[in-house]
Amino acid sequence: MTQHTPAGYFRDWTITELADQLRSGETSAVELARAALRAIDQFDAELNAFTAVDRGAAVRAAEKADAELAEGLDRGPLHGIPVAVKDLVEVAGSRTEMGSAHFADHVSTSDADCVRRLRAGGAVLVGRTTTHEFAFGPTGDSAHRGPARNPHDTTRITGGSSAGSGAAVAAGMVPLALGTDTGGSVRVPAALCGVVGFKPAFGAISTDGVFPLAQSLDHVGVLARTPQDCRTGYRVLAGLRSTPSQERGQAASIGWLDPNALHPTDPAITRAARAALDVDGLAVREVGIRDPDLVHRGFQGIQHSEAYANHAERVSEHPELFTDDVLERLRQAARTAGWQHVRALAARDQWRREVQELLSEVDLLAMPTTCVVATELGRRETTVDGVEVDVRAALIGLTKPWNLAGVPAVSVPAGRVGGLPVGLQLVGRPGREDVLLAVAARTGG
């Protein structure tokens, strides 16, 4: 078990600071790439955050980035910055396994759209990060090449499914990592690993070239040390070329949602998240949800239907290649009836209207990110305030509503409970991401 959280080079610097050092000549892209590779060598044997490390390609990309800067070609805020990419996203010439034996040693022949955006922005891709198999799990501990481990306690989960991305950023191996988020898969590992995770609005970043879990709910997101770093990555990935907003988040109205309305939540986590909002200029008031069951019915009906549709042939023809955890969930998903999917779509539409109403009354919504802290690897039941709960449900009970609504959401660190990180989650309106991330920077970030 890790006694002290690993502190790789990038635990000490923001992307903005690294970019300034690159342009002043204090460092070089090659030096940053080598710092990332050294940190991976030092920490990853214990954490299993990476499934593949592209050493030669990373150094060559860094050399190119340095040469371009020397010639006056500046591709933007990620130019020369090391980035890790979840093993669900196609990267040309790199092994992409989706965390599954079904794709053991599969090598991508083309880049996903989001990877093309990274390369066009001058980012240096250093490797692929562990995903829960096919992204179908929020624990991050069920994958073909083994579980990712939490840098704060290696006997515990990172959260998932963007498990390795959370661990890699938390351990300082890279300053920025790509994840995907269908029900919380960026925000959950961010919360449990003590970093920032941002899921933008649905469709804001292209999912072309990303292996689907549930296409109606899938998002590409980012994990980093600060909300500002997440915003930098998001703007590059979304192709935003306008001048960045100077929004500082000095004043905002916040609607606090009682997390227990959605899922039983550890009271200590609720207190920590609520305390993170005690910031000058933020006006916090209680708001409620009319029918929480609407969220659960809508999310499960859509996710299960689409997930099984994506894997029906694999389940039928080669079930032995799945991890037990994911095969069990897919067989459960197979029992979703057509009428349940139709009703789930109606529930989604009703929920979206309710969220629009809530966000017309306040600038942001707030609640904890997860109902529990990081549990032990392999554990699937736990107790919350005296109630026995399913670990997976407790991890996504507060994050999945915002995938169903398709609105942007961010998790920021909100302290520790029992020595383990917990997160505050903020939710905003599409098009108001600058307000969301600015307020995030003033609270837990």
Please give a structural write-up.
The protein is an alpha/beta fold. The chain has a domain at 9-237: Amidase signature (AS) domain (Amidase signature (AS) enzymes), CATH 3.90.1300. The chain is 38% helix and 16% strand. The chain contains 14 helices and 13 strands. It has an 11-stranded mixed β-sheet, sandwiched between helices. A two-stranded antiparallel sheet has the order 10-11. Strand 2 (82-86), helix 4 (113-120) and strand 3 form a beta-alpha-beta unit. Helix 5 runs parallel beside helix 6 (187-193). The longest helix is centred in the C-terminal third of the chain and has 26 residues, at 292-317. It starts with 14 loop residues before the first helix and ends with a helix.
What's the name of the CATH homologous superfamily of the domain at 9-237?
A: Amidase signature (AS) domain
Sheet with most strands: strand arrangement: 1-3-2-4-6-5-12-13-9-7-8
Sheet with most strands: 11 strands, mixed
Structural class by SSE content:
alpha/beta
CATH architecture grouping of the domain at 9-237: Alpha-Beta Complex
- The oligomeric state of the chains shown is single chain
Strand content: 15-25%
Cα radius of gyration in angstroms: 20 Å
Task: Give the CATH topology of the domain at 9-237.
Answer: Amidase signature (AS) enzymes
Kindly state the number of beta strands. Answer: 13
Whole-number average pLDDT? 96
Entry summary:
38% of the residues lie in helices and 16% in strands.
Kindly list the characteristics that best describe this protein.
11-stranded mixed β-sheet, 445 residues, single chain, Amidase signature (AS) enzymes, two-stranded antiparallel ribbon, alpha/beta
